[in-house]
């Protein structure tokens, strides 16, 4: 297995930045920070799950010189990018709705 080890001081710096946004930042800044963090986690998860299939498709398209397979690979990549952007937008929208309900 391949694991990425984040140094302790770097992890603490990330957590401290999020905490500072929570305490001293505006609500919008905090929502965007939280959205970016969760979207990053979702993106890493999607890449981890879908990467073997994507790598197989790239390898197949390079070996076969088949333009139809290459276009499917590009379409698959575009779907992943659009899905991540949609999740980013949806998560921000949900957080804004929840926050506005708590404010009332």
TrEMBL record:
Q: What is the lineage of its organism?
A: Bacteria, Candidatus Kaiseribacteriota
Chain segments annotated as transmembrane: 30-54, 74-95
Q: Which organism is it from?
A: Candidatus Kaiserbacteria bacterium RIFOXYD1_FULL_47_14
How is this protein named in the record? ABC transmembrane type-1 domain-containing protein
Which UniProt key words apply to this protein?
Membrane, Transmembrane, Transmembrane helix
């Amino acid at each position: 297995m391949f694991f990425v080890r984040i140094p302790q001081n770097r992890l603490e710096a990330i957590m401290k930045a999020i905490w500072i946004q929570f305490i001293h930042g505006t609500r919008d800044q905090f929502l965007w920070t939280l959205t970016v963090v969760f979207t990053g986690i979702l993106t890493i998860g999607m890449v981890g799950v879908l990467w073997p299939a994507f790598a197989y498709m790239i390898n197949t398209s390079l070996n076969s010189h088949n333009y139809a397979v290459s276009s499917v690979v590009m379409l698959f990549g575009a779907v992943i990018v659009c899905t991540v952007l949609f999740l980013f937008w949806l998560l921000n929208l949900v957080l804004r709705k929840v926050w506005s309900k708590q404010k009332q």
